[in-house]
Structure formats: C-alpha cells, structure tokens
Amino acid sequence: MNTLFGEKKEGATKIVPKSVDEYPEAPITLGTTLSNFTGDWRTFMPVIDDDKCVKCYICWKFCPEPAIYIREDGYVGVDYDYCKGCGICANECPVNAITMEKEEK
Amino acid sequence: MAGYKPIRKVVSGNYAAAYAVKHARVQVVAAYPITPQTSIIEKIAEFIANGEVENLQYVPVESEHSAMAASIGASAAGARAFTATSAQGLALMHEMLHWASGARLPIVMVDVNRAMAPPWSVWDDQTDSLAQRDTGWMQFYAENNQEVYDGVLMAFKIAETVNLPAMVVESAFILSHTYDVVDMIPQELVDEFLPPREPLYDLTNFERPFSVGALGTPADYYEFRYKLQKAMEKAEKVIREVGGEFGERFGRDYSSMIDLYRTEDADFVFMGLGSLMGTVKQAVDLLREEGYRVGAAKVRWFRPFPKEEIRELAKNVEGIAVLDRNYSFGMEGILFTEAKGALYNSKARPLMKDYIVGLGGRDVTVNDIRKIAENMKAVVERGEPDVEVDWYHLKR
Ligand code: SF4
Ligand code: SF4
What is the mean pLDDT of chain B? Predict the structure, then answer.
C-alpha cells in the first residue's frame, strides 16, 4: 500500500522568500505538514514487532502526525521522516507490540 | 439616477442589513444573538426557514468568539461569510478579529454600535467599534438604513478585492430598530455588481497542500504585517472605485471616503461618524439660514483612514468641530485624535475642538448642534479653543 506521503514527499517544497514580493499574500505555505520533517524532534523511536502485532490499527488511528502507515502485507510501518517520537502508539498498542528505543544519531 | 427600478421597502436598519446579506448571496452566517444586533440574524434565519435563500448555511454558535471562529473557517474554505454583533460581543471577538485580517479573509460583519458596560447599556455609542481600530478590519459607518444596505453590498466587493475583512457599522436603535424607506437593488443587478467570490487560495486542492495560520518566525512575521498595510492602502483606491461604480450602477455615489455637505464656502465644519451626521446635516441647513457658514464632513470610512481627504478639507476651513460619540480614556475622542494626527505634518491646520456627545445613547438634537455651532464660532473668532475636549452634555 502506498503511504500517504509516498509521492507527495518529493513535491514538498519549503518556501524561503528573499524579498517581500516573494511572500504569498496570505500567511500560508510557510511550512506544510509535508515539508516540516518532524522526525528531527525524536529522541526515542518506535520499533514495531510484527510477531506481536494483531493488525488492530489502533496505533495508526492515534498517531498525531500521522507517521504510521499500513503496509501492503497488512502490518504497520513507521515513516521516520515524520515520527516525532511521542510514544503515543506504544502507549496505545493493546498487545505491547511497540517499544520506544533510544535512538543513536 | 441609474436606469433601473429599485425595490422600495420600509425596513429597519437591521432588516436592511439582512436583505443585503441575502442579495449578496452569502453562503455562511455564524452568529450569536446580542441586543441590538439580534434582528439581523432573526431575519436571515427567516429567509432560510422560508426557503428564500439557496445555499446559505446558518451555524448556531455558543459565543461571539465562536461566531468569528466559524466565519474564519468558512471564509478560509472559500465561502462568502457574514456575521453580526454589538458591544460586548464585539469585544469578545477581538482576538479572532486579528485572525481574520491576518489570514486575509474577506468576512463582512455588521456591528450595531452599542455602549460598553458598565453601566450596562444597550444604546448607541461608537466606542465598541472604534476600539477595534487596530485589528486590521476596514470600517464603514452608515448614516441611515439605506447606507446600511449599500454598505454591506459594497463591503463584500471591496473586502474580496483586497482580501481584508470589513465592518459595516450602524447605530443601536436609531438605525437598527427604526424603520425607513430603503431602495433595494434587483437580484440580477446585484449579481452583476457582486460576482461570486474568488478566494486567494484553494483549500480544496489536495495536490498542493499548505498550512493556514502557520507559524511565522521573526524571519517572516514582519513582511506579512507590511503586506497587510499595503492591502489597506490598496483598499483606499478600491473603496473609491467601488463607491464610484456603485453610484454609476445604482445612483448613489460613494466614491469619496468623506461625505462633504455644504463645505465649499464654510468657515468651519462639523466632523463625525454615522447616524449622528444625519442630524448634523439638518442642523447645517438651519444654521445656514441663520447666517452661519457651516458644513458637515461625514467620515464614511474610518479604516483605512481618509488622511488625504481630511488634508484637502483642512485647506479650506478655519475650524473643525469634531463630534465624538466615543471616548478613549486618558486621551480624548477617538476621531479627534485621528483627524488631528492626519493634519500634523501638513501645512493646513485649522482650529480643532472635540465635542463629546451622545455617549450611551444620549440624544443629540439639532438644537445641540446649534449650541455647538455658537461655541465653535466663538472659538474660531478668538483663534484658540476654550477647552480642547468639551463634555458637552455634562450636568454641571
Ligand atoms: S511515536 Fe508518536 S509520532 Fe511516532 S509513530 Fe508513534 S504515535 Fe506516531
Ligand atoms: S496498535 Fe499494536 S497491534 Fe495494533 S496495529 Fe498497531 S502495532 Fe499492531
């Protein structure tokens, strides 16, 4: 399954205007959810254990970004460009299939 | 007079506003009832209940803050949005007013001028709307019910041209609940004058997503404020053009931001906002018969402020008696400050005196204007004001 961001990520541009005329008329598109890679914020990363996962998609529903996507095999994956490491998914998973691990950068 | 047959109705100022909303083909109305605004929304609800309007969504909300929030959402999504309020309700909207102008959304609102509490009051006073001076909203002050109707139609066109919200202001009870003849415009002609809105951006284009109301860091915020000011400057031009076009199409000309009445050879003029100026015009006629050379300068648009037109007027008169039905505590009447400020860096600086009148709905009669004229005449002859700010009605 295509992730929600799969194609759009390439098209996402961050506008950096150099003069007042380059600014949009209304304060929009300074940064969209697509161009704002919230993955940099993360200290702990969710790691999903497919062996434990029961495909309930509760994590997919609760992820506030949303960084969780449903893979073609029906299990869930994490798009780490957008996962901010909040841990909500791990907290909500009914079978503890998600663990938050300290990320080495 | 333009070649069309107007639809003549006897309506209150509030109903005039409601009919204008109907004729403007507004798509979303969100409002919370507050006296004396309520009958605007009641009439609109009646239009919806009777099936007299198509495609108009009414959003009942639990406060004025939410009314403005819902209007912002609707307008951001591309709809033509309207709301109405008064006094404390407008004050409750204050925070949201900045969101509307900052996001450049052409919402039109009628504010029925009402005094701020305490003491609790429901009567006419301009302090509520003038206190919103710095929110980035345009402000049009209607003298009579006809101007309420015309003002709402023009406000939509101007707002949607420059992408700024606009407030049409009418007096509590003096206009809002008083019936008068209003010439309305046939729907087809309104449609020609006011085509459907073309939003600045398309929120429904999912291929090009963007954020609305995004964070502006110190690197970007400043430029957006500048753009808002530029839009206000452009609005001055658009106001004159749209006002002129309105005159050509419908026979009532609004091409100047100040309405000058018998000022040509006037020694001094009365300057003020809104319904007050109807009384002043009548007084001017009587005073002229009595030998006073006086005129009236009704400020139609308070924001953007008609600086240039006030400078032009100042060249030809010896005195300006500003009538303020409002007050900025710790200073003086608000229009007085603004008009004086407009003249500071110009050569023509007539004598100016501020008369505080009609606060909280106190009646301002032709006789009051006569007394003010006598006083102002003495001021002009003496060459200096007795006092700068005169609490005219005060029980002494
Ligand atoms: S840690 Fe937070 S952001 Fe990351 S996938 Fe889980 S819920 Fe989403
Ligand atoms: S909440 Fe847990 S079990 Fe449910 S889909 Fe997500 S990882 Fe799998």
Answer: 96
Q: How far apart are CA B353 and CA B350, in angstroms?
A: 10
State the Cα–Cα distance between residues B20 and B42, nearest whole angstrom: 14
B311: buried, middle or exposed (CB in 10 Å: 19+, 13-18, 0-12)?
middle
Of B96, B97, B207, nearest in space to A32 by CA: B207
Which residue in B227, B228, B229 has the most chain A C-beta atoms within 10 A of its own C-beta, making it the best mutation to test that interface? B227
Chain A interface includes B218 (CB < 8 A): no
As a residue count, chain A comes to 105
Helix, strand, or coil (residue B44): helix
Query: Which H or E run includes B372?
Result: helix B366-382
The Cβ-side half-sphere exposure at B192, using a 13 Å CA radius, reads 9
Taking phi first (over 0 means left), then psi (-120 to 50 degrees means alpha), and beta for anything else, what does residue B48 get?
A: alpha
DSSP A7: T
Start-to-end Cα distance in chain A? 29
Interface test with A, best of B75, B164, B202, B223 (most A CBs within 10 A): B223
CA B375 to chain centre: 29
Q: For residue B257, what pLDDT is reported?
A: 98
What is the distance between the alpha carbons of residues B263 and A51, in angstroms, rounded to a whole number?
A: 88
If you measure CA to CA, which chain A residue comes closest to B229?
Answer: A25
Report the nearest atom of ligand 1 relative to the CA of A66.
8
pLDDT tens digit sequence for B53-70: 999 999 999 999 999 999
**Token pair in block for residue B198:** 């073309």
pLDDT-based confidence at A16, cuts 50/70/90?
A: confident
Task: Encode B102-138 in three state secondary structure.
Answer: HCCCCCEEEEEECCCCCCCCCCCCCHHHHCCHHHCCE
Cα gap B266→A75, rounded to integer Å = 84
Radius of gyration of chain B (CA): 21
Residue B343, both tokens? 């003249």
Question: A with B: how many residue pairs have Cβ under 8 Å apart?
Answer: 53
Nearest residue to A47 (alpha-carbon basis) of A95, A4, A11, A97 = A97
